[in-house]
């Protein structure tokens, strides 16, 4: 194996405000390309920041999109459904709740085969038949990759000089301290050409979570909608990783973008704390 990127430290190429403006433009362009080609894409609507950000950026185009929420059998999904229905009512979105249909054993086995045995993605595996029912000729735009801007594996007190070790990386990944995993983590650390500990942790998220775990779920859903992932864009990744550390903590990136494009959406709760309708 040979590392193609990054081969040096990632440094800010443009001021933060310019970077945010470019990120917003790239995200919008991906969705608009599909709409202008005559497609009506699926976008999910949840109680989290990712779908809220895309909704903000597509404020003027929201009627050209089919918004949906999966009604999964867990508390997080219940929050998603409740908040999505409120947003849909207030903002007059074309939205529907898609009932959960548990995948049969054979469907789950096929999903695992296609995804290279991604056994950690329990939701994806159980959703196999639900996703397939959405149709193979439609486009679906998931927000995979958005958490690059959230500094997912940073911890309080981390900075560019934080000492990182193989056992510590496994703890952040919630993996066992098993000999082969420790050896792999040591090899991974040795071959990095980046000294900044925060950037190492960013690469840990990109390579050891998004690329090898979340990224393969699209293979599992090969018979479902065509996936186009707006955040999975090399330029967006570079811009996000070059933003100031303070902006990337505490969901600063989505907050700033939503505030710029549709600030009223910030009046709605994020992942809980339900409250009455805000003025849209």
Share of residues in helices: 40-55%
What count of helical segments does DSSP give? Answer: 13
Tell me the span between the first and last alpha carbons.
51 Å
Oligomeric category: single chain
In spatial order, strands of the major sheet run 1-2-3
Mean residue pLDDT: 91
In percent, how much strand structure appears in the residues?
A: 5-15%
Task: Please give the number of β-strands.
Answer: 5
Query: Element order, helices and strands?
Result: HEHEHEHHHEHHHHEHHH
Major sheet characteristics? 3 strands, parallel
Output the radius of gyration.
19 Å
Overall 3D shape: globular
Layout of secondary structure:
Layout lengths: L15 H21 L5 E3 L4 H9 L8 E6 L3 H17 L3 E5 L5 H10 L7 H5 L1 H5 L6 E2 L25 H8 L5 H13 L5 H15 L5 H4 L5 E2 L6 H8 L3 H4 L3 H10 L19
Parallel strand pairs: 1-2, 2-3, 4-5
Helix pairs in contact: 1-11, 2-13, 7-8
Question: How would you portray this structure in words?
Answer:
- With 280 residues, this protein is mainly alpha-helical.
- It has 13 helices and 5 strands.
- The protein has helices spanning 16-36, 49-57, 75-91, 105-114, 122-126, 128-132, 166-173, 179-191, 197-211, 217-220, 234-241, 245-248, 252-261, and strands at residues 42-44, 66-71, 95-99, 139-140, 226-227.
- A 3-stranded parallel β-sheet has the order 1-2-3, with helices on one face. The protein has a two-stranded parallel ribbon with strand order 4-5.
- Helix 2 runs parallel beside helix 13 (252-261) and helix 7 (166-173) packs across helix 8 (179-191).
- It is globular.
- The model is unreliable at 274-280 (pLDDT under 50).
């Amino acid at each position: 194996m040979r590392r193609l990127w990054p081969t040096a430290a990632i440094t800010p190429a443009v001021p933060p405000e310019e970077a945010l403006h470019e990120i917003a433009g790239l995200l919008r362009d991906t969705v608009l390309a599909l709409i202008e080609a005559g497609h009506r894409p699926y976008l999910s609507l949840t109680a989290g920041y990712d779908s809220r950000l895309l909704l903000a950026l597509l404020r003027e185009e929201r009627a050209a999109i089919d918004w949906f929420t999966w009604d999964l059998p867990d508390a997080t999904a219940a929050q998603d459904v409740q908040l999505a229905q409120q947003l849909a009512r207030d903002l007059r979105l074309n939205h529907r709740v898609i009932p959960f249909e548990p995948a049969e054993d054979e469907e789950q086995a096929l999903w695992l085969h296609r995804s290279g045995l991604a056994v950690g993605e329990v939701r994806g595996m159980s959703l196999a038949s639900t996703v397939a029912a959405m149709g193979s000729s439609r486009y679906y735009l998931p927000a995979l990759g958005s958490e690059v801007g959230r500094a997912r594996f940073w911890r309080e007190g981390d900075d560019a000089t934080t000492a990182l070790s193989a056992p510590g990386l496994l703890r952040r990944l919630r993996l066992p301290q098993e000999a082969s995993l420790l050896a792999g983590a040591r090899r991974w650390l040795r071959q990095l050409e980046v000294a900044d500990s925060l950037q190492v942790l960013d690469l840990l998220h990109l390579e050891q979570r998004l690329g090898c775990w979340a990224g393969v779920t699209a293979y599992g859903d090969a018979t479902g909608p065509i996936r186009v992932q707006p955040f999975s864009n090399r330029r967006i990744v570079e811009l996000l990783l070059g933003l100031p550390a303070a902006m990337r903590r505490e969901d600063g990136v989505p907050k700033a973008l939503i505030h710029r494009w549709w600030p009223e959406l910030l009046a709605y709760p994020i992942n809980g704390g339900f409250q009455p309708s805000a003025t849209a």
